[in-house]
Write a structure and sequence with these properties.
The complex is a heterodimer.
Chain A (H helix, E strand, L loop, with lengths): L12 E12 L2 E12 L3 E5 L6 H8 L7 E6 L2 E2 L4 H7 E4 L11 H11 L4 H14 L15 H13 L5 E5 L7 H16 L3 E6 L2 H7 L2 E6 L2 E6 L1 H7 L4 E5 L3 H11 L4 E3 L4 E5 L4 H13 L6 E5 L3 H9 L11
Helix pairs in contact in A: 3-4, 3-5, 4-5
Chain B lengths: L13 H18 L2 H20 L1 H7 L6 H19 L1 H12 L2 H7 L7 H27 L8 H28 L3 H7 L1 H9 L12 H9 L1 H14 L6 H25 L4
The chains are: A alpha/beta, B mainly alpha.
């Protein structure tokens, strides 16, 4: 599976890129990226730190220029009509793009002014967005006093002032607590329901899985794979359960009980059994152990994660954590 | 795919965007006034030091017979110029700090007039420095500075100071953009805020300086401007310094403006 969708693309592209390249000195950050994001969808660029996700967003949002390749956003060529691209997009960066020295309300007013909205319309939109993102109580406080989740919400609220058609979200949930993360997911789903296109970067497979229509896996400046979450997951070997035992006898008994699919590690006194982690499959596994009258010391369920996807599509782990397979 | 929608022309609002950015910078100055207070405080301290600590001795050296009030008249134009010089410190630091802020990255991805970010900084700084000048002048009058200048001369002096302020501020913006850290930015403007005012006729006549320093002091723009201000406020000979001051200011403004725009147009760090 590669990044090419073939020639039969019919949906109009909100974002289209061909052969994007970027290097800083002799460090190649992007080494030929092709992208096609249909309008009104969520596209997720998935990858570990340093894969080039932020650089891709910076290029597509006109912040920096690519060394090679071409791209268009909302139908406008990045190089030929950057102002037209800017008029159509909204960007929420990894490091929040709010003015910390002024209040949330003043930040919103600043955006309304820069979008050349009338006084009354600016006030209406500001009030509406502050309310929608639960920032009314904090509106008159300096943004520097906001929590991480609040600042991220203000950031997105500011992005929405101009009613952008394409929104770039660079790791919108990195550093957020679980509750704020789920709030952010709801916000992102609502955005697309309104017809905009979302380009999202993340290092969490779960996040891409939850939100994205299509996912591209970025690894060392190249797209290692691209497809729907289901397509990608099919590339990943299934999950497994790891059982640890007190002594070799118990390990041997369990190995006999669970049969061929299991792989024993005699030194570590552990057994690795293919299992999708569902309640049904786990019950069957435990029933098997009961019948053989062995009790494991520990049981851990391992579900496919970004590391597995990376291993599957690039032949190496996403980070330094190497696990025998 | 890229020609799906025909390229739209985006209406530019340079004036409106610059006013918005100016409002933002004045808001910053109002919320965090310590920098602005420093700009006024420094020249006032210099004025008091030079008048009350060095004044009598320097006046003797000037041939004023140890009359402190004669030295006040001599030093006030220099202190006013120094006030403008001090104003470059917060400007360069603020610009350098601002460029590292996420919100400026946001501005760069918005369909606004690009130069408005810098114009907002410059106009904001010029307004703050002009307010400082009024305050410093007030202190000078309070400790005994007397001028026989009429309204026209005062207005001309204010005009010269505004031109200098514009020139030095654009230069400071360029230095702020070129500096990797706020500390480096505040060092970069040291010649404008400190060195050049001292190596000029602001505090003592250049005749009192040795050889090559004297040559440098004679020709550098701070001396030209100080002599112009001194002439307007205390009636000394201005000569060709008036036109030279205006020419220097316009040239430095142009240089600072072009440099800053180029620097800002580059990909951010």
């Amino acid at each position: 599976m590669t990044s090419r969708d073939g020639t039969g693309v019919t949906a109009p592209a909100a974002i289209a890129a061909e052969g994007l390249r970027k290097a800083y000195g002799d460090k190649v950050v992007l080494d030929g990226i092709d992208l096609h994001v249909p309008q009104g969808t969520i596209f997720s660029l998935l990858g570990p730190n340093g894969a080039g996700k932020t650089t891709t967003v910076q290029i597509l949002s006109t912040l920096i220029t690519a060394d090679g390749g071409r791209a268009s956003v909302a139908g406008h060529d990045l190089a030929a009509a950057p102002q037209a691209v800017r008029a159509a997009i909204g960007v929420t960066g990894q490091f929040s793009a709010v003015d910390n020295m002024i209040t949330g309300e003043e930040n919103m007013a600043l955006m309304a002014d820069l979008h050349h909205l009338g006084r009354r319309e600016g006030k209406r939109i500001t009030a509406e967005l502050l309310d929608r993102f639960d920032l009314v109580a904090a509106a008159k406080k300096p943004a520097s006093t906001y929590s991480g989740g609040m600042r991220r919400r203000l950031d997105i609220a500011m992005t929405l002032v101009g009613s952008p058609r394409v929104i770039f979200l660079d790791e919108p949930t990195t550093g957020l607590d679980p509750r704020s993360r789920h709030t952010m997911w709801e916000i992102i789903r609502d955005l697309v329901a309104g017809g905009v296109t979302v380009f999202l970067t993340t290092q969490y497979l779960e996040e891409a899985d939850q939100l994205a229509d299509r996912i591209a896996v970025l690894s060392r400046g190249r797209l290692a794979a691209q497809g729907t979450p289901e397509e990608l997951k099919r590339l990943v070997p299934g999950g497994h359960v790891r059982l640890t035992f007190a002594d070799p006898a118990a390990l041997a008994a369990a190995y006999r009980a669970l049969g061929d699919g299991a792989a024993a590690d005699e030194e570590g006194l552990s057994l690795r059994v293919p299992n999708d982690g569902s309640v049904h499959a786990l019950r069957a596994l435990l029933d098997g152990l009961d019948r053989a009258a062995v009790t494991p010391e520990a049981l851990t369920v391992h579900t496919p994660d970004l590391d597995d996807v990376f291993f599957a599509v690039t032949g190496r782990p996403g980070n330094d954590k190497v696990e025998a397979r | 795919m890229s020609d799906l929608m025909s390229p739209r022309t985006v209406a530019a609002h340079p004036l409106r965007d610059s006013l918005t950015m100016l409002r933002r910078n004045l808001l910053h100055a109002r919320r965090y006034p310590s920098m602005t207070i420093g700009v006024t405080g420094m020249p006032v301290i210099m004025l008091l030091l030079f008048v009350y600590v060095f004044g009598t001795a320097l006046s003797t050296g000037l041939g004023g017979g140890g009359d402190r009030s004669a030295y006040i008249a001599y030093v006030v134009p220099g202190i006013l110029l120094m006030t403008v010089g001090s104003g470059t410190v917060p400007t360069a630091v603020a610009v350098c700090t601002d460029m590292a802020e996420g919100v400026v990255a946001r501005f760069r991805t918005m369909a606004i007039s690009r130069s408005s970010v810098l114009v907002g900084h410059v106009v904001g700084s010029v307004i703050q420095t002009m307010i400082s000048l009024v305050l410093v002048t007030g202190v000078a009058l309070a400790i005994g500075f007397r001028s026989d200048a009429g309204a026209v001369e005062w207005l001309a002096a204010a005009g010269v100071l505004a031109l200098v302020c514009c020139a030095l501020t654009w230069l400071a913006v360029g230095m702020g953009l070129a500096s990797p850290t706020p500390e480096a930015a505040s060092n970069a403007v040291l010649p404008l805020s400190f060195l050049l005012p001292f190596i000029s006729s602001a505090f003592v006549p250049v005749d009192a300086m040795p050889g090559w320093i004297r040559w440098f002091a004679d020709y550098q723009p701070f001396t030209t401007v100080v002599e112009t201000l001194r002439g307007l406020l205390t009636g000394t000979e201005i000569g060709h310094n008036g036109w030279l001051s205006v020419a220097w200011c316009l040239a430095i403004t142009l240089l600072g403006f072009v440099w800053s725009q180029r620097r800002f147009a580059r990909d951010p760090r």
